[in-house]
Structures are given as C-alpha cells and as structure tokens.
Give the backbone structure.
Amino acid sequence: MADLVEPSKPQNAYWIWLADNRDSLTKEAGSKSASVVGKLAGDRWKAMSAEQKVPFEKEAASRKAAYEAAMEKFVADGGVKGKRRAEKAESKKAQTEKKAKKEARKSSGAPSRPQNAYWLYLAENREAITKEAGSALGSAVGKLAGQKWKALSAAAKAPFEKKAAELKADYEKAMEEFKKNRPAQDDGDEEAEGEVEA
C-alpha cells in the first residue's frame, strides 16, 4: 500500500488572484523582488471591488471544499492530520539544537579541527579553480577541485598531506591540553561529543 499523503491546504482568494496576475504585476513593479511585487499586489487587491473579487472567492471556496473532502478521506484511510507540520517542526527543532551544540562547542574554547590535505589544496588553489570553473558557486568549484585533487600525483599531494599531518598533530596536542585543563563538570559532554565526531 502506498504511503498516505496529507492534502495541502488550498490557497485563499488573494493567492489565487496573485497567481493569475503575477506576471503583469512583476512588469508593472519593474522588479521580481517578492517584497516589491507583494506590496503592489496587496495594494491592488485592497483597491478591488467586492464584485471583482467574487470569481476568486468562488474558486477559493471550491478548493476549500475539495480540500476538506480530501482531508476527510485521508483521515478515514488512517492518515494523521497535522503530521507533516509536526514533522517539520521537529526537524526545525533538531536543527536549532544542533546549532546550539555547535555554538556551545565554539564558546567552550576547545581547539577547532584542522583542515585535511584536500581543503589545504583547495584554499591555496581556489582562485585559479574558480576562474577555470567559470563560476564562484561552491558546488561548481568543489566539483572541479575534487576532480583535480583526484588527478594529482602522490608527489604533488605530498606537501599538502605533510602540512595536514603537522596541523593534525598540533590539534591533538592542543586537544590533550584542553582536556587536562577544562573544568571537571564538562567531562561527560566533551567525551560524548568527541566520540560522535571521531
């Protein structure tokens, strides 16, 4: 059996009208900026008479009725109303917690991990690779840099690998020092975090 998909809420009359008139409003505004077009659209919608809004309100009412019928069927078939919204909220909460944990680690004074050989190579050659890629987009530069890195000989990679090994050794010394000198109450958290990242 296919997974049940919760029906999406329908657009109201304003959004239906905006979808029909977005192109002309964009031309009139002289900009594709959502804020500029949105302000103009809001002003136009408010200035419309009730008669002019009727077709959009009828369309919105029919879409709402179809949505309610689809929702009843969804729930009758065993779907859970609001599950998608709850999952989205949970995802956002997890992201916020991850960000807070990262910021706490930064503010703890722990040494940051060093770059590996590839990242050192990329840092040194980014400008040339960006020119060759013809774009400053991270995805384009990263893809070309990855291809170039794989194509490099072991001798060409050696200076970057040597520097990376030195940085890693310095990091490990600094981390040992940090672990010795940090307050005792942080012990469990840092160990658990270190295990996850290792």
Summary: The two ends are 40 Å apart (CA to CA). The chain is about 75% helix and 0% strand. The chain has a mean pLDDT of 86. The first helix runs from residue 13 to 29.
